[in-house]
């Protein structure tokens, strides 16, 4: 009996020791699981915070980019409006110059006709009077050639103005292809090149070229009016 009781006590002790070992093993597993869960939660929080910061930065950058694009678009619209205003002024100026040119052509044709009439009227005249008339006809012919040369110069200026009008129409009708600094710079460069063409043509800016051209046309008209036909 004593041997059986000793054997049972030994078994109970072994069973109790096994239970304790299993309990400690379960505790360790639970502790590891908690540590793993805490680690995963910490990583998730870090990722969430990082995403929130990234989203905030992206939103801020997007707002700054939109503000920049809006400013550049306004600058571009201002340049287009300036080109259109310059186009209207150039069209008006070209119309006035073309009208004056037509009047000059009419005066030249009238002068040619008058020279021919004088030539036929005094054909066969002898003596001093005939020499005076011939000299007068030569002078009128020279003046006529000068007027024709000046008229050709005016035609050339009209052609240059017409080309400039076409150029301004193309520039003012070109829509914005892209927004950004490069687009604004591109339109600024085209505007500067157009102004430089008019500066080379008239020796001044396009806004200062109107009065010199009108003065030139007025001077040409005065030259024509000064011609005295006998």
Describe the protein's topology.
Layout: H1 2-121, H2 127-173, H3 181-202, H4 210-225
Description:
By secondary structure, this protein is an all-alpha fold. The protein has a domain at 83-225. Helices cover 89% and strands 0% of the residues. It has four helices and no strands. The protein is rod-shaped and about 175 Å long. The N and C termini lie far apart (171 Å). Keywords: Coiled coil. This is Coiled-coil domain containing 13. Residues 66-100 form a coiled coil. Residues 28-50 have a biased composition (Basic and acidic residues). Residues 20-50 are annotated as: Disordered.
Main attributes of the structure:
230 residues, mainly alpha, 4 helices, disordered C terminus, Coiled-coil domain containing 13, coiled coil, CCDC13
Outline of the structure:
This protein has 230 residues and is an all-alpha fold. The protein contains four helices and no strands.
- In what range is the share of β-strand residues? under 5%
| H/E element sequence | HHHH
**Average pLDDT rating:** 69
Distance separating the two termini: 171 Å
Judged by helices, strands and strand pairing, the structural class is mainly alpha
Number of helices: 4
Main sheet? none
Number of strands: 0
Mass-distribution shape: rod-shaped
Radius of gyration: 49 Å
Give the uncertain stretches in residue-range form.
176-199, 201-210, 223-230
Helical amount: over 70%
InterPro entries: CCDC13
Keywords: Coiled coil
Protein name: Coiled-coil domain containing 13
């Amino acid at each position: 009996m004593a041997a059986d009781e000793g054997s049972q006590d030994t078994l109970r002790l072994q069973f109790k020791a096994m239970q304790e070992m299993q309990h400690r093993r379960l505790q360790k597993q639970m502790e590891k699981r908690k540590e793993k869960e805490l680690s995963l939660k910490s990583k998730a929080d870090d990722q969430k915070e990082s995403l929130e910061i990234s989203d905030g930065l992206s939103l801020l950058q997007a707002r700054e980019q939109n503000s920049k694009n809006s400013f550049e678009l306004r600058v571009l619209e201002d340049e287009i409006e300036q080109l259109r205003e310059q186009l209207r002024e150039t069209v008006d100026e070209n119309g006035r110059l073309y009208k004056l040119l037509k009047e000059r052509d009419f005066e030249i044709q009238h002068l040619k006709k008058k020279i021919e009439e004088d030539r036929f009227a005094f054909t066969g005249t002898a003596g001093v009077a005939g020499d005076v008339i011939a000299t007068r006809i030569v002078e009128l012919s020279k003046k006529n050639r000068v007027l024709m040369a000046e008229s050709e110069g005016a035609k050339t200026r009209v052609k240059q103005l017409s080309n400039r009008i076409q150029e301004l129409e193309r520039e003012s009708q070109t829509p914005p292809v892209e927004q950004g600094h490069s687009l604004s710079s591109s339109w600024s460069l085209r505007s500067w090149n157009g102004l430089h063409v008019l500066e080379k043509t008239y020796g001044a800016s396009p806004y200062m070229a109107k009065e010199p051209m009108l003065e030139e046309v007025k001077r040409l008209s005065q030259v024509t009016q000064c011609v005295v036909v006998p």
